[in-house]
Amino acid sequence: MKSLFKVTLLAATMAFALNTVHVLAADTAAAAPAANADAPAAAPAANADAPAAAGTTAAPAAAPANAVSDKFKSSEEQAAYALGASLGRYMDNSLKEQEKLGIKLDKDQLIAGVQDAFANKSKLTDEEIEATLQGFEARVKEAAQAKMEQEAKDNADKGDKYRADFAKQKGVKKTPGGVLYKVEKVGTGKAPTNTDTVVVNYKGTLVDGTEFDNSYKRGEPLSFRLDGVIPGWTEGLKEVRKGGKIELVIPPEQAYGKTGVPGIPANSTLIFEVELLDIKPAAKTPDEGKPSADQPAAGAETGK
């Protein structure tokens, strides 16, 4: 009777293989988060019914899911090969990720392990396999943690240097919260308040120039309540008015801190170029502006 471990491992392997394409696509296509949750993650897709632009050739249509290639004798044969190819890609990507952590596994031994398992002649017992994999998992986690901590330290050091250099530029000022800013155009009217909705265009980059967000490229400005974004924005945008333009250099503690988010590593200093297009004051509640019960209305006589 097969052990539970073997059955579980096989099920997990099959699941990994069948989901490889989706997992890899999600990893590579994950966009950096916008300033708030309502921001579009990417430019809208083109209308499927729209004709291709002049001078371009439309991509060939994908083959039907049940089509059998002339390289295979049957759909079952093709499915078996596809499953193996998907599993192979997953394992190859796993090996490459582990190499980034300084861990290099022998690909020939990995393939030999798969072949021996199918031939039912494994060189290791189930208990040895389980113990080996648990030890390896712990090693990978330890290496990944060390890499993350080193990267966080490097990001903090690079951010400190960038902010120190930026602070020396002419016209640069600092908010009480530590956000550095340079006003290119003040704008007109009143400064936005925490409860106002602002409409902005912006570009966000890391200190190495990597762009993680850009409303200009999306072709659509962003609207959000000022107190609904990272603290650096809430504080920094109060330095301009409608029509203003400002450059913000935000330390990690006023942005995404020690954890970061997808597209923005831990301890990252963020640079934003922001245009404040409009300010929409918060709507007043029906009771706002009315006198309280112990306060007379304007113009009312007070008895003596």
UniProtKB/TrEMBL annotation:
Signal peptide: 1-25
Residue ranges of coiled coil: none
GO molecular function, one term: peptidyl-prolyl cis-trans isomerase activity
Biological-process GO terms, alphabetical: protein folding
Region (Disordered): 282-304
Alphabetical keyword list: Isomerase, Rotamase, Signal
Matching Pfam families: FKBP_C (PF00254), FKBP_N (PF01346)
Enzyme class: isomerase
Source domain of life: Bacteria
EC assignment: 5.2.1.8
Domain PPIase FKBP-type residues, every copy: 195-280
Reactions mediated catalytically: [protein]-peptidylproline (omega=180) = [protein]-peptidylproline (omega=0)
Bilayer-crossing regions: none
Function: PPIases accelerate the folding of proteins. It catalyzes the cis-trans isomerization of proline imidic peptide bonds in oligopeptides.
PANTHER family associated with the record: 39 KDA FK506-BINDING NUCLEAR PROTEIN (PTHR43811:SF19), FKBP-TYPE PEPTIDYL-PROLYL CIS-TRANS ISOMERASE FKPA (PTHR43811)
Annotated family: Belongs to the FKBP-type PPIase family.
Protein name: Peptidyl-prolyl cis-trans isomerase
Species annotation: Sodalis ligni
